Amino acid sequence: MSGHLAALALNTFRETVRDRVFYLVAVFGFVMLASTAVLSPLTVGAQAKIISDVGLAAMVVFGLLVVVFVGSGMVRKEMDKGTILTILAKPVGRRTYLVGKFLGLNLTLSAMLAVMTVLFLLLLLVSPGAFSLRFLPVIWLCFLELTLINAVAVFFSTCVSPVLAAVFTLGAFVVGHLSQSIRDFGQLQGGTAHRILGEVVYYLTPNLEVFNLRGAVVHGESVALSHLGLATLYAVGWTVILLILAGAVFARRELK
Questions:
Q1: Domain extents for the chain?
Q2: 241 neighbors 219 (Cβ within 8 angstroms)
Q3: How far apart (Å, rounded) are the C-alpha atoms in residues 256 and 80?
Q4: Does residue 21 sit in helix, strand or coil?
């Protein structure tokens, strides 16, 4: 099974490269260089913080674009071309197929983040007072967040059309960052229905704020190792749950 997973993952990686998603890395570099030119008149301290904030946010945004526009249509794309039947005719189960596609897109995200991290650190290196290795843990948290969203996209890709999968994935990203606020709002309303709805949203959707320590790190704080460990377990747990659910749905789906 490991050989089939590796083959599927590498094939998915090659497909995404052919789709030219790495052009987003060039856009990232342009955004960072442009931000440096615009922010150069600012004081040293403000310049360093804003460049760091823009760079970390851009990593998440560009990674999210890849997941939404590639991940949401991976399954349907091969169904439309008819290649999925050829793949599943071999000794490759449907769950193995989904995991392989997930790993392939995650490999793409890893490569993109690695290149963007190098560009980001080089830019910080030439910016006065900006360079620090404390940004590496928060970049790992960005990768965990995108991995989880990748699993969300894979799940929705087995249920609905690519357009709806993209919309639902974006919705899950937004709700994931607002889940704590939705829960707090429901409790403040005082009504039972509002409170229950807030609790349901909070517990049935991933809390993506677990991975959002970018603001704190930009302002000089460090990420605790305990938080990194718990965040990693949290991301792995949700990813496994979503892939299991995706496999269960896909196993019952009729392929044409």
A1: 2-251
A2: no
A3: 9
A4: coil
What separation in angstroms does the CA of 242 have from each of 30, 236, 248, 255?
35, 10, 10, 21
3 state SS for 212-255: CCHHHHHCCCCCCHHHHHHHHHHHHHHHHHHHHHHHHHHHCCCC
What would the two tokens of residue 3 be? Answer: 């050989």
Answering whether pTM is above 0.85, one says: yes
Contacts of 54 (CB under 8 A, 6+ apart): 31, 32, 35
Task: Check the CA dihedral 132-135-137-139 and report its sign.
Answer: negative
What is the chain's pLDDT, residue by residue, as a tens digit (256 residues)?
A: 566 777 778 887 787 777 666 676 667 767 766 666 566 565 555 677 777 888 888 888 888 888 888 888 777 777 766 666 666 666 667 788 888 889 988 998 898 888 888 888 887 787 766 677 888 899 999 999 999 999 999 999 888 888 898 899 999 999 888 887 777 776 776 667 767 777 777 778 889 989 998 888 888 788 889 999 999 999 999 999 999 998 888 877 666 5
